Amino acid sequence: DKDAVDAVDAILPAGTLFGAVLGNIMPEIITTSLGIALYGMFIAVVVPKARENRHVLITVILAIIISTVIRYVPVFSGISAGFAIIISAVIASVAGAVFFPVKEAE
């Protein structure tokens, strides 16, 4: 629905600004806890799909492998943990899209 997309596009910048401001005001223990909650939320979204779809599972495993390589191979030691997650997710997602394309419904 175009109206729903327009509403989300209007809200996202405000939500990002709100999150950035609150992230700087909140105590560290709360921001750390929210970071952990974000991982939990990600797992709650990905695990059910990975159980029902082998291609999703392979893509998730690829992301884990890439993340592990970035973490433990010394040449990548300058990459922050947050950026490593982004790199892993993007590379695995592109690989998943290339090797397991979703067929369009006609």
What does this entry look like structurally?
The two termini are 19 Å apart. Helix content is 82%, strand content 0%. It has helices at residues 2-25, 28-52, 54-72, 81-99. Helix 2 (28-52) crosses helix 3 and helix 3 (54-72) packs antiparallel against helix 4 (81-99). It is mainly α and 106 residues long.
> In percent terms, what proportion of residues is strand?
under 5%
CA-based shape: globular
> Number of helical runs?
4
Residue windows where pLDDT falls under 50 for at least 5 positions: none
Spell the H/E element sequence: HHHH
Structural class: mainly alpha
Number of strands: 0
Rg from alpha-carbon coordinates: 17 Å
Mean pLDDT, all residues = 87
Gap from first CA to last CA: 19 Å
Short recap of the structure:
By secondary structure, the protein is mostly helical. The protein has helices spanning 2-25, 28-52, 54-72, 81-99.
List the helices and strands and how they pair.
Blueprint: H1 2-25, H2 28-52, H3 54-72, H4 81-99
Helix pairs in contact: 2-3, 3-4
Which key features would you list for this structure?
single chain; 106 residues; mainly alpha
